[in-house]
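Render this sequence as a predicted structure.
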Amino acid sequence: MADIRHASRTERAIVLFVTALILFPVLWLLFLSFIPGQDIAGGFGTIGRRFTLENFTSLWDAVFANSFVNSLVVGVVSVVIAIALGAPFAFWLSRAHLSARSDFGIGLIILATRMAPPIAFTLPYFLAYRYAEIMDTRLGLILVYVTINLSLVVWTMRTFFDGVPTSIDESAEIDGASRVQTFFEVVLPMSATGLVATTILAFIYAWNDFFFALILTRTEAMTAPVAIVNFLNFEGWEWGKIAAGGVMVMAPVALFSLAMQKYLVKGLSAGAVKG
C-alpha cells in the first residue's frame, strides 16, 4: 500500500474526505453521548453548551446491565459453537474433491440462510420457539445466531483452507498424523488469520443483531441493541441515553477489532487469493 505522504494533494484530499465521511457518524454519536438529553432535544442552539457523564452512569440500571451481559454471553457462545462446527466442515469441503454439481449444490444449501431477508424466518422461528418453550431465552438466540453464522463460517473458512496446499496434508500424514491431527495441528494454525477474521465478522453479526432479538425476546434475554429502544417512550425520547447506549454497544466490537486489526487485514486479504 502506498504511503499517503507520497500521494498528491488531490489524493490526500480524497483520502481525508472519505475518512471524515466514514468517521463523522461515529464521532457525532460520541459527542452527543456527553450532551444532556434536554439540550439535544433543544436543537443545535443548545447542543454543546453543557457536557455530562450522566448519560453513561444512568445506563447501568438493572435492565441495560442485564441486556449487555446477555449480548456478551449470546455472542461469544454462538460464535464459539459456529466456529467449532463450521471450521471442520469447511475443511472437509476443501479436501473432498466433489464434483462441480455436488459442490454447487452444497454451496447453495450453505448460503440458503443468507438468501432471504430475516423477516422471512420470523414466523417459523417464532412458532418453533413457542412450542419448544424457549422464547425469551439465551438458548433461543444462540440457536438463531449459530444457524445464521454457520454459513458464514463454512463459506469463508473454506476459502482459507483452499489456500493451504494439499501437499502439506500429505506430508503430515506421511509423518504419521491422522486426518484430525492434520486439521488441528497443521492446517488450522496455518489459517489462523482467516480464523480470526471469520470470528470477528461472526461476532459482529451476533452482537449487533436487532431484528431476531426484538422478535424472540421480551425481558429475560433482551440484548443491548433492543434495550436501547426502551429509551424511546411515550414520555419522550431520551436522546442522551440513546447516544450513550450506542457508544457502549459499539465499544467492545471496535476495541476488539482494533486489537486484532493486523490479523483481520491479513485474513481478509489472504482469503481473496487462492494458492
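Summary. Residues 271-275 have pLDDT under 50 and may be disordered. Strands lie at 232-233, 236-237.
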